[in-house]
Amino acid sequence: MMLGRMMLGQAGEWWPAWDLFGDAILVGTMLAIVLPLGGVLLVLRQQMFVAAAIGQAATLGVALALACGLGSAHALTHGAGRGAALACACAAAAVTAIAALRALSVRQSTLENRSAWTFLISGSVAMLLLDGVPHGPQAVQQLFLSSLLTVAPGEVGMVAVGAALTLGAAARSRRLLLWAIDPTTAAAHGAHLVAHDVVVGALLGLWLGWAIFTAGLLFTFGATVLPVLAARAAARSLRGVLVLAPLLGGGGQWLAFVLAHRLDLPPAQVFVALQGTLAMVARLVARR
Asked: How many CA atoms lie within 13 A of 53 on its CB side?
């Protein structure tokens, strides 16, 4: 009996208290599984930094909501104003994502300059809008630095439903993969590029906007691209990347929470550090 209590006590030291961090663990894991699916699209298009630009646009959406009085920066993680700020973040991210995908399909060119412009302008304007708002600059800084510990309990069910629908749609759509690789060839085979750009862009923007609002820019950008880079170095096919990247993201998120709890570190930053290290090691091993 004494030995059993000691083992349970040691396990409790390693694993975060579920009543305190259970919602954050579930939401963070589901985001880490779904976001790499959008990352595969951006990696195929060689537009990884677009994810950061979309995320920063979501930050600007939050700033616009707070500047218009749709919520309080002090109560951004709860209260009536949370829904309005979240809606503005998702709307701004969705518009940016749709515009980016349409530009890629029409012009077949890179968006490096536009992504950098969007990232810098959105971040600076967000800070300027909230300069006179109580706790406004702190809210923008929180969105940038990332935190997985401010999840609302009601978000678990919504994220779970959204993740299930997204994974099911991604698994059944073969034409979507051709569109992601080569829009011109997809159009020649009957794909409607505008419809794909709008639907996928809206879905990508909604997920990135939600992730930015819940977990911050650093976690969102890292979860979108780093598991994909590691999976691309380890897998031998595109289908392998599509399967392996979400597994690396979700599994890495659980490990990050355990290490963060054990070492008293922020979980989002631990997750990004682990995924970045994994991507670097996988690439070095693939070269050998």
From this structure: 21
Give Cα separations from 16 to 4, 181, 256 (angstroms).
19, 41, 11
Q: What pLDDT is recorded for position 9?
A: 43
Distance, CA of 7 to CA of 113 (rounded, Å): 55
Q: Please provide the size of the chain in residues.
A: 288
What does the alpha-carbon distance between residue 98 and residue 205 come to, in Å, rounded to a whole number? 8
| Full set of structural domains in the chain with CATH | 19-287 (1.10.3470.10)
* H or E segment to which residue 284 belongs: helix 267-287
Please tell me whether residue 192 adopts helix, strand or coil conformation: coil
For residue 75, give the amino acid letter.
A
* Averaged pLDDT for residues 203-211: 88
pTM of the model: 0.81
User: What is the spatial distance between Cα 46 and Cα 42, in angstroms, rounded to a whole number?
Assistant: 6
Q: Which two tokens stand for residue 192?
A: 């409607």
